[in-house]
Amino acid sequence: MQIEDESVILPQGESLRAYLVQPFVSKGDLKSLLRLRGVFTSLQEKEQSIPALTLSLIKPSEFVELQQLYTTKEDNPKVTTQIIEWASPETLISSIPDEIDVNKVLDLDFENFKVLNAPSFYPVPNSDDAIRMDFEIERLDRSKSWADSRKRFKASIEIQKSKDKDELILISTHTAPETKQTNRALARHLIGHFKAQGQIAQKASVQQIRFGDFTNEKRFDYLLGFTRDNRQSPITFVEVVDIGLVPDEDHTLPEELEWMKERIRGLDLRGTGLEDSDFLSNPKYRPCLLIHRLDAKFRFSLCGMDGHCVISLGFPDFNNGQNPESEIELRIKKIDFDESRRGLDKNEAKQTILKEMEFVKIQAFKRLATLD
Percent of the chain beyond pLDDT 70? Predict the structure, then answer.
């Protein structure tokens, strides 16, 4: 009997390869899956690990794990921030264009997604001067004929005036890569409009928090600042549970770290209480190490929600050739509530927490800049 519901087909061979080459399945994910099988490869790139899976049968439980990777990584909200000087007394809601056709802003003639409906900006409730646009995109991927070819993803962009000085803060909450692309296009469009209206100076440039903005030592100080600077906030630090490190080839390793030389390209340390480990607590190591990610456990009590979460603070594009332009990104890898409530949307809860942490991120960066 022929199965008409393609979503229940267990892919093998070429169909499986088409799934595994997708960017949401990382080389680390494939490495972990192969290790569970007792398979170890000398090279860790996907070109070597994918054949090891496609040339054998994949179990239903393994495919379920791969599907969960899709949901976890693409549906999970991530937050980035841009800052630019503002030079107008007008409110934001009166300064934006009368109409914004997001699909025209994107110029999507050759893309495989579109923004649904006609989203627009609205004033953020209980805020002095802030606007927000919520939107949803639909992606059509014809290479997934055996699975769901249409996927929808939600995102938002919020713009607010800083209370401390004349500047705008643009907060991008995205999920899949297409929503990140949409937010970037919207930000460019609005900044261009504000400059044309004289509300932003023509020479003003967007400030982002990038990997290359720090020395090796300052990057440690900045990421560790998240574990110290929010003691009085509704989100409090518990412990560091994971860090990503790479030896800096331009610096000499101290004698006790010589074992990393020419043998370690990247190091992921997982555990509990890692803030007390030598890698994080010994300042002697910091000049010769590139820290690109810090995952920490936090306790939150916010908007009637109580529980614990693991927040990842890192530069996700750093792994693409140690890209110094990689922008810092916040995302929640795990969240647990003290009490489960019916109708509680985990992604909305994550966005609430991330927005609170976004201000910690900005203030920590500004504080560090004043010390230079």
Answer: 86
List the one residue out of 309, 279, 315, 305 whose CA is nearest residue 296.
309
Q: What span, in angstroms and rounded, lies between the C-alpha atoms of 276 and 163?
A: 36
Q: How far apart are CA 96 and CA 300, in angstroms?
A: 35
Q: CATH for 78-196?
A: 3.30.310
How far apart, in whole angstroms, are the C-alpha atoms of residue 211 and residue 291? Answer: 9
Q: Which of 232, 261, 239, 228 is nearest to 364 (CA)?
A: 228
- Whether the Cβ atoms of residue 300 and residue 336 lie closer than 8 Å to each other: no
Domain residue ranges in the chain = 6-74, 78-196, 211-370
Distance CA 290, CA 322 (A): 9
Distance of CA 92 to the CA centre of its chain: 27
Q: Could you identify the residue written with the tokens 């496609």?
A: 54
CB atoms within 10 A of CB 22: 14
* Residues whose CB is less than 8 angstroms from the CB of residue 109 and which lie 6 or more positions away in sequence, other chains included: none
Model confidence at 92, pLDDT cuts 50, 70, 90, reads very high
* φ, ψ at 214 (rounded to 5°): -125, 150
- Give the SS3 label for residue 314: strand
